[in-house]
C-alpha cells in the first residue's frame, strides 16, 4: 500500500533521515517509534509532500509520489495529521472539517454523508459544530484535525504523535478511535513516543534512531526487545 525505499531527508547540511525503508500493507496499522530528533516527523512530512526527498522513493498503491506536492498526495489517497495540530481558530468546527474536504468540493452530497459518519465517530465534534475551533480543548482539537484529514476520504492515514500533551483519559479515547478506524479498513502509519499505547494497537513497528531504522518487527517482537528503552532514552 505504502512503500518507502531508501528515503533521505536533509535540512541544508543536516541529514535528518538516512536511507530509511519500510512498508505499510493494506489495512495494516504500522507504528514508527523513536526518541526525540530520530527523524520521525521529517519522514512523515516528506511522505506528505511537505518536504522534498534528498534521495529514495515513496510509492502509494504502486504509484510513485516521491515528488508530489501536498495536494497531489492527498488526491492520491493519503492524508496526514501533522504533530502541530493546526486548526483554523476563528473558523467553526464545521468550517474546519469542510476545508478537509477541499479535494471533493464538487461532491457536497458525499461530503455531508462523510461528515455524518465522522460525527458518529466524534460525537463531541458534532456537539461543537458551530463553535470556533480555537475554543476547543487540546483533545478536541486533536480529534478535529484527525476528522478533518478523514474528510479527504483517504485510504492511508499518517498520524504524527496524536497523544502528545494530552491527558491519559483523552489519549485512551484517541487510541480507541484509531482502533475503530483500523477496523473500518483504513491503512494507518502512526508515529508515537507513547510506545506501550502504540504497540497495543499496532500490527508492526519500526524504531528509528539517528535518522535510520534501528529495529523492526511485529508489535510483540518489538515489545519483547529488551533494549527498546535504550533506543528511546539514548536517542
Ligand atoms: N526545519 C528544520 N531545520 C533544521 N533541522 C531540522 C528541522 N526540522 C527537524 N530538524 C532536525 O532533524 C532531526 C529530526 O527531526 P524530526 O522532527 O524529524 O524528529 P522526530 O523524530 O519527529 O522528533 P520528535 O519526537 O521530537 O518529534 C533533528 O535533529 C532536528 O533537529
Ligand atoms: Mg516529531
Automatic annotation (TrEMBL):
PROSITE patterns reported for this sequence: ABC_TRANSPORTER_1, ABC_TRANSPORTER_2
SUPFAM superfamilies, alphabetized: P-loop containing nucleoside triphosphate hydrolases
Domain ABC transporter: 2-235
Family under the similarity heading: Belongs to the ABC transporter superfamily.
Name of the protein described by the UniProt record: Branched-chain amino acid transport system ATP-binding protein
Pfam family membership, one: ABC_tran
GO terms under biological process: L-amino acid transport
Amino acid at each position: 500500500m505504502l512503500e518507502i525505499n531508501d528515503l533521505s531527508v536533509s535540512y541544508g547540511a543536516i541529514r535528518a533521515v538516512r536511507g530509511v525503508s519500510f512498508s505499510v500493507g493494506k489495512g495494516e496499522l504500522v507504528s514508527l517509534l523513536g526518541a526525540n530528533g530520530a527523524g520521525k516527523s521529517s519522514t512523515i512530512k516528506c511522505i506528505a509532500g511537505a518536504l522534498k526527498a534528498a534521495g529514495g522513493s515513496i510509492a502509494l498503491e504502486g504509484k510513485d509520489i516521491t515528488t508530489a506536492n501536498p495536494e497531489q498526495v492527498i488526491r492520491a489517497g493519503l492524508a496526514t495529521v501533522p504533530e502541530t495540530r493546526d486548526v483554523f481558530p476563528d473558523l467553526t468546527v464545521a468550517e474546519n472539517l469542510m476545508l478537509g474536504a477541499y479535494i471533493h468540493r464538487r461532491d457536497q452530497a458525499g461530503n455531508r454523508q462523510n461528515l455524518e459518519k465522522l460525527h458518529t465517530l466524534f460525537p463531541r465534534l458534532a456537539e461543537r459544530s458551530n463553535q470556533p475551533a480555537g475554543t476547543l480543548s487540546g483533545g478536541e482539537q486533536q480529534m478535529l484535525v484527525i476528522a478533518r484529514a478523514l474528510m479527504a476520504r483517504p485510504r492511508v492515514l499518517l498520524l504524527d504523535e496524536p497523544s502528545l500533551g494530552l491527558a491519559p483519559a483523552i489519549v485512551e479515547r484517541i487510541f480507541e478511535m484509531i482502533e475503530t478506524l483500523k477496523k473500518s479498513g483504513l491503512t494507518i502509519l502512526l508515529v508515537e513516543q507513547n510506545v506501550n499505547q502504540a504497540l497495543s494497537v499496532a500490527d508492526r513497528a519500526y524504531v528509528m534512531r539517528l535518522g535510520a531504522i534501528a529495529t523492526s518487527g511485529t508489535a510483540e517482537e518489538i515489545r519483547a526487545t529488551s533494549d527498546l528503552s535504550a533506543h528511546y532514552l539514548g536517542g
